[in-house]
Amino acid sequence: MILACIVQGPLTTEAQARVRAAHAAAWESLTFGGGVGAKLRFEGIVRRAEADAEAEGRQRDLVALDYQTYDPMAERGLLSLAGEVAERHGLKAICVLHSRGRVGVGEVSFVLEVSAAHRGETLAAVADFVDRLKRDVPIWKRAVWA
Questions:
Q1: What is the tens place of the pLDDT at every residue in 9-44?
Q2: Distance from the CA of 45 to the CA of which of 26, 106, 109, 126 falls in 20 to 30 A?
Q3: How many CB atoms lie within 10 A of CB 128?
Q4: 58: domain CATH number?
């Protein structure tokens, strides 16, 4: 089972609950699907200290990140990547949520949940997915500085 969604704003508990409710069967397969022995959740959180290229690499205080997407293209990219990662690592299910719009420091902008028969597959899949997401999926971010 694969689920990929772009969500407006930060991925708060409430926002995630709305996605869960809209896609209950997919979410349930993460934990209760046949043969699942491991489930791993990764959250990407906007951090305050970022290197600012315009400030010659000095650290500056970040207020937020503005994520921009063309949703159909970004969701296709997430689904394609999820399918490839699921096949490569033998996953039973993979769900990915990514923010669009402004996400403040300390807020969650990315959630990835994977399940597989064993923990090794989940650990490798998360690392693979995150590395390729940053490189291959058309989601752009702009820093908002203090």
A1: 999 999 999 998 888 876 666 666 678 999 999 999
A2: 26
A3: 16
A4: 3.90.1170.40
